[in-house]
Design goal:
By secondary structure, this protein is α/β, with parallel strands linked by helices. The strands form 3 sheets. Strands 1, 2, 3, 4, 8, 9, 10, 11 and 12 form a 9-stranded mixed β-sheet that branches. A hairpin with a 5-residue loop joins β8 and β9. α2 packs across α3 and α6 crosses α8. The protein is globular, with a radius of gyration of 23 Å.
């Protein structure tokens, strides 16, 4: 039994026990297929860049990406030839007209199709998909913008008009999407895949829940009782997660609340290479193709820049006041795991639900 009287870990083993831990390379090999669609369930901060590197090394092709707001990951995937379609609201561009980054080059050369959206409409696409809705209303003023007038490769599969059943006016709606998979990095997760994220989340909730499956990387793997001690932080539920990758520094050079700041110097060196395809290839050969995994990446970083460079960007502790989740009423389950409300213990309840066809495992 847990201290609050809820069922013991043994009693919920059927739901929590699956150990989904594996390497990033194994996760991509098992759960990503050519021609699929995917979404990043991080935006601007905490980016799952270790998983991006694993995806690039896998050689998967013809993927479609939904990205709320990107910095380096979109250009990396374009340079690797991993994606050929992109639905995007924002992508960081350094250097103004003096620089032609991989996204610009791919558009000019016809290697990439792009659907330009706003932050709100792309998020609405994911929210509708997560909630099981075919569409959601968006701001009507969008109709006079090029986002609606000059639709990209999605064409009629992005915006439409429907009648307001209450007022009778035409309203603009955006189609709901459920990408095949999501890539996501979090501060901590248990081995079953319950992932907890805090800090600036932006699109994380709806992008994660919209995806058919989530490949999750985490700074720490913790016991399930740690997850249960702060349930409000769980943003990736285990039933949606197909793989859990233990990956310290998995968002570097992006930042992650509670762990590290962004690496300004490293990012500057990266952006110095994007204007020249040969320099970009050399950067990717050094930091992606020439390394086996994130451990090798960190070893190479330390060898080149020194461990003190990593230590300098580590986050200083800033603890929040803990919340108390106890309630005054009696728990549903007693010390033996029996419930007077149901007239049976949890194992018997699960067996009953299976017998009646109520319980469906993901």
């Amino acid at each position: 039994m847990f201290e609050d009287g809820s069922p013991s870990e043994g009693a919920v083993k059927k739901f929590m026990d699956p150990d989904k831990r594996m390497t990033g390379a194994e996760a991509v090999a098992r759960f990503v297929n050519d021609n699929e669609s995917f979404v990043f369930a991080n935006c601007l901060t905490g980016m799952p860049l270790a998983l991006v590197h694993d995806l690039i090394r896998s050689g998967k092709k013809n993927l479609m990406l939904f990205q709320q707001g990107g910095i380096e990951e979109v250009d990396l995937l374009i340079s690797a030839g991993s994606i050929d379609r992109l639905a995007v609201a924002y992508n960081f561009r350094m250097g103004g007209n003096r620089v032609t980054p991989p996204l610009d080059r791919a558009l000019k050369e016809g290697r990439l199709q792009v659907e330009e959206l706003t932050n709100f409409t792309l998020l609405a696409m994911m929210k509708a998909g997560a909630m099981g809705y075919p569409f959601l209303p968006v701001l009507g003023g969008m109709q006079v913008t090029d986002v609606v007038k000059r639709q990209g490769f999605l064409g009629g599969e992005s915006f439409a008009q429907v009648k307001d059943p209450f007022g009778g006016d035409d309203i603009l709606v955006v189609k709901g999407y459920r990408p095949d998979f999501a890539l996501m990095h979090v501060q901590r997760a248990d081995k079953a895949g319950n992932g907890q994220l805090w800090g600036a989340m932006i699109n994380s909730k709806w992008a994660a829940l919209a995806a058919e499956r989530i490949i999750l990387s985490a700074e720490e793997i913790v016991d399930t009782d740690v997850i249960l001690s702060a349930p409000h932080l769980t943003i990736a539920p285990a039933h949606k997660v197909c793989a859990v990758v233990h990956c310290p520094w998995g968002a570097h050079p992006s930042e992650l609340a509670g762990h590290y700041d962004y690496d300004m110097v490293f990012r500057a060196l990266y952006f110095a290479s994007v204007n020249d395809p040969n320099a970009m290839k050399a950067w990717m050969d050094e930091w992606i193709h020439g390394l086996p995994d994130r451990t090798g990446y960190l070893e190479h970083y330390v060898k080149k820049f020194g461990r003190e460079s990593l230590e300098a960007i580590k986050a200083k502790p800033l603890r929040s006041v803990p919340a108390d989740y106890r309630y005054s009423f009696e728990p549903n389950w007693d010390e033996t795991g029996h419930s007077d409300k149901f007239g049976m213990n949890l194992d018997e309840l699960v067996a009953f639900m299976e017998e009646k066809g109520i319980l469906k495992e993901g």
